[in-house]
Structure formats: structure tokens, C-alpha cells
Amino acid sequence: MQAMCQSRRLWGSVGICSRLMCLIELAGMFFHVRCISHKKPSHHTMGRKSFAITFLFCLLLALLWRLEINYYYDASVEISVKNPTKKSIRENTSHRRANQTKPWLIIYWSTYFQEQLHISIVWKKGECPVPCEVTSDRSRASDAKGFIVHARDSQMIPPTESVPWILLTQENPVYTPSFALTNAKFMSKFKLLRSYRLDSDFLDSTFWMPTVAPPLHFKDKNGLIMAAFSNCEPVRTEYMRQLMKFVQDCDYFVDAQLIHALHAGSVPVVMSTNKLDEFLPGNLRHSVIKVRDFKSPRNLSDYLKYLNFTETEYNKYLEWKWKGIGNITGTVIGDYWKPKYLIYCQMCVALSEGRIHKDGLQPITCKARSFED
């Protein structure tokens, strides 16, 4: 029996139930030794020594057991995610040991605007429909189920095309290297797209949900239109006017400038994509003035002057500030503002279900704006 108990003291391979059995058997030995000591007085001294040694051994066993339980169930680790927003998250990783399923591993392969990211995120059970892990550790490439590449850093190519490449871009093609978004051969290497476009596999727009707060009262306004200049000298102003001839409107590209204007409680006058309405669901539908709704700058100017003297019409553009954003259910941007799962989890789910573009992505281009537009 003692030999059996000793064999169960191999901590690397023995379970908790086995250790409980070991303690029960030791208790039986204590009782047996005490009985012998009472029946055979001649061996009383030996019985007392055996009991003392066995008792000390049992105490040591119990102490080691307690330490191991603390190790297995109290372990947690702080994981730092260094990115442009400089955020850190804290993840309890004890669930990794309980989860027997190997996670879908996504490696952020490239840099992000020439900066190396340090990412290590593991989803807890119930936070994502599938086991999911994202890391920037390139040494784990052989275990990867997908690679993320930032379009502005796309010279950093993953080591294999046997698993899907995921392209990340939050900027339109005008500000992206020519060999990237507009290049058909390059784009065909990527099987999934994470971008500003509403038709992306994973929407990642800088057009966030605007805040709802009472705007400045109409009578407190002290101007008609604001334009931001650091210096209104004539050369710069003329240059801006000429530059407007070549500015491009990209499908679905709506950046943070519009959201800043909405946050501030102003009425934005927007020259943008003709798909702008898809970004403005619910009560936001009538929150902006679109340049393309007017035949000429003069027509637009006349309308702005009209609003400046007509409080009721002006306030219609700000009704959402009092009523709220309204119903955004069933809209792409609404699902982005209130997602069921975070974007990396969405990637793991798509990879696990094989939802990829087998022939690769199509080039993303912009149509130059003309005065007729």
C-alpha cells in the first residue's frame, strides 16, 4: 500500500482524485499502525515513530497539493496591446487550460504605419463563437490560420499563401502606394478585406456613432459658415480651389471629419461619396447638406443663407440631437456601431467557416470628381 501511495506522488502525471485516494490510504495506514501499537506493546516505540513519519509526510503532501491548486486556478496574465491608440487590456488566461480546442490563430504580420505592433489577445469561452487568438508573434507562422497585412506596409509579405491573407486599409487608394489597392495582381493574393468600405468582409470605418447632446441654440449662433485656414493669403486660397478639381470621391470613403462636425452639433455641408446615405441611418438621414443636391455653388449659397434666417428649417437638421439616432437595425453601419462580436472574433469565425474570396480581392479605385458631378 505504501508503494502504491508513493507511485501516486508523481505530480506531473497524477490527478487530484488520485491524490485524494493517496490521503485516504495514508489515513488507513495511521489507523493500522495505531492498532498494532496497542496490540503489541513491544513494538510501541516503533509504531509511534512510524506514525510520526507518516503524519509529517501527509502534511507535506497536503501542502504541495494546496500550492498546486493555487497555481492552476489563480493564474492570470496582463497582456499589452501596443497600437496607435496606446490601449492596454487585461485578459485572464486560465480558460486556455480548460479549453481543449486549438484556437484559430491570426497573426498580424506587417507593421502598422511602419511601427511594430505588440498584440496578444485570446478570447475567453463565450466571448467568441470559436476559439480565437490574435498575435503579432511571427515565430508562430506555422500555426497561423490567417495573416493580416496593412496596405501602407504591404511590402511585408507573409511567408506562405497556403492560409488566407487579410488586407487592412482605412484610407482611400489616393493615399495608398500604387502597387497596393489598385494593383489587380497584388489584390488577388488577399482573400479577405478589412476596410472603411461598407461592403468589406470586416467593416473598420473611422465614421463612429455620433454623440447625442443638445446643440447650440439657433439664436446663439454667431456665423453662417466656418472654413478652417491657418493663413488666408491669396496663393494658398487659389491653390485650394485648383486642388478641388482633382480631389477624388471614393466609394464608401467617409472619414472622421464628418463625425467631428456631427459631434459638435453643426450642420455639415458635405462633398462626398454618393453612398453617403448608407452611413446615415435612422434620424441621421436628414443631418447633413449634400453639395451634389445643388446645381451650382450659387444655389447652395442661397440655400445656406435661407437656413441662416429660418430657424425651423435649420433645426430640422438637428432633430436627431433631441430625438436620438433612432432605429439603425439591419444597417451595415448600425451593426458596426453595435457589433455582436469584435472584429478579430469576426475574422476567426469567417476563417473557421471558410468564408473567403478564393480568387482574391478586386482592385479598389477612385473616380476623379468633375465639375459636372
Automatic annotation (TrEMBL):
GO cellular component: Golgi cisterna membrane
SUPFAM superfamilies: UDP-Glycosyltransferase/glycogen phosphorylase (SSF53756)
Keywords, in A-Z order: Glycoprotein, Glycosyltransferase, Golgi apparatus, Membrane, Signal-anchor, Transferase, Transmembrane, Transmembrane helix
E.C. no: 2.4.1.-
Protein name from the UniProt record: Fucosyltransferase
Annotated ranges, domain Fucosyltransferase C-terminal: 250-355
Organism listed in the record: Desmophyllum pertusum
Tree of life domain: Eukaryota
Family per similarity comment: Belongs to the glycosyltransferase 10 family.
Subcellular location: Golgi apparatus, Golgi stack membrane; Membrane
